[in-house]
From TrEMBL:
Name listed for the protein in its UniProt record: NADH-ubiquinone oxidoreductase chain 2
UniProt keyword Metal-binding, yes or no: no
Family named by the database record: Belongs to the complex I subunit 2 family.
Originating organism: Zimmerius gracilipes
Enzyme Commission (EC) number: 7.1.1.2
Transmembrane segments: 59-79, 91-115, 152-171, 178-197, 203-225, 237-257, 277-300, 321-343
Chain's role: Core subunit of the mitochondrial membrane respiratory chain NADH dehydrogenase (Complex I) which catalyzes electron transfer from NADH through the respiratory chain, using ubiquinone as an electron acceptor. Essential for the catalytic activity and assembly of complex I.
GO biological process, one term: mitochondrial electron transport, NADH to ubiquinone
């Protein structure tokens, strides 16, 4: 892709995200979401592969539908209450439509079907954008409207997302699809605590984005797209793959890594809210995710594919690791001791 075009699309992504998260009017928020959608479409389809074209078409249709529902929700609310303010969503029908629209944009169950396919058809860096930055504006809208939303509905969708994300990721061999189902599962964790502690949802999203970015950058460094390729990477970049194992375990939520922090805090908050059953169920469902994270870690570090003596000379090859990858790796594995400081972030 032309560097100038890539710069324009990247700046448009930044602009759309900024417009949405800083607006208090529904039309401005909708405009920002549309800018984001139009900016990411060329990045998805830039390889001109039929799979990429299919992914961009699916993404466009889903996002257009979700944006239409969001606009209809805000117009319905304005019709009945006279309010265009995002925080003044009071009409029940508007709340239901908004929940549907944001769920479609995020990929929450039962509107998750498009997300793994779109990630599978995109490049690794575009998949990183789709899994992190593109989810930020809808998450902010969900946070702003959380007092008006139905907690029972959100809890049911959250548990369903955690269950389906873990269950569907078990038999995948494509790493992008595994990370897509991982994203759906983590969205379940963010959604279940949304009503009770919006700040905790935001912290969970930040730490999830941090860890996912580290994984995608590590995979980009080794150009790894599926499990069979992952098995051959140890002999090329053993240090990077060893740290990738730690990042995967952090994403799974194992202590004492960073990923344990949000799950620990969410379970603690749910217990405080007398939602012990929900906390127990979602904690048990995280074991499904743990299985395929361990599977990835096993393939990356313990399994070495059959290879000739000449091939093992790759062990001596020194490949430079991106500085950003190193920083994100450190942050995604070692932030747990800073949890008191993280919790003071407004």
């Amino acid at each position: 892709m032309n560097p100038q075009a890539k710069l324009i699309f990247s700046m448009s992504l930044l602009l759309g995200t900024t417009v949405t998260i800083s607006s208090n009017h529904w039309v401005m928020a909708w405009t920002g979401l549309e800018i984001n959608t139009l900016a990411i479409l060329p990045l998805i389809s830039k390889s001109h592969h039929p799979r990429a074209i299919e992914a961009s078409t699916k993404y466009f249709l889903i996002q257009a539908t979700a944006s239409t529902l969001l606009l209809f929700s805000s117009m319905t609310n304005a019709w009945f209450t006279g309010q265009w303010d995002i925080t003044q969503l009071n009409h029940p029908m508007s709340c239901m439509l908004l929940t549907t629209a944001i769920s479609m944009k995020l990929g929450l169950v039962p509107f998750h079907f498009w997300f793994p396919e779109v990630l599978q058809g995109s490049s690794l860096m575009t998949s990183l954008l789709l899994a992190t930055i593109m989810k930020f504006p809808p998450t902010v809208l969900l946070l702003l409207t959380s007092p008006s939303l139905n907690p029972t509905l959100l809890s049911m969708m959250a548990i369903a997302s955690a269950a389906l994300g873990g269950w569907m990721g078990l038999n995948q061999t494509q790493i992008r699809k595994i990370l897509a189902f991982s994203s759906i599962s983590h969205l379940g964790w963010m959604t279940i605590i949304l009503i009770y502690s919006p700040k905790l949802t935001l912290i969970t999203f930040y730490l999830y984005s941090l860890t996912t970015a580290a994984i995608f950058l590590a995979l980009t460094s080794t150009n790894t797209l599926k499990l069979t390729t992952l098995m051959t990477t140890w002999s090329k970049t053993p240090t990077l793959i060893a740290t990738l194992m730690l990042i995967l375990l952090s994403l799974a939520g194992l202590p004492p890594l960073t990923g344990f922090l949000p799950k620990w805090l969410i379970i603690q908050e749910l217990t405080k809210q007398d939602l012990t059953a929900a906390a127990t169920v979602i904690a048990l469902l995280s074991l499904l995710g743990l299985f395929f994270y361990l599977r990835l870690a096993y393939c990356a570090t313990i399994t070495i594919s059959p290879s000739s003596t000449n091939y093992m000379k790759h062990w001596q090859t020194s490949k430079s690791i991106n500085t950003l990858t190193s920083i994100l790796t450190a942050l995604s594995t070692m932030l747990l001791p800073l949890s008191p400081t993280i919790l003071t972030i407004p």
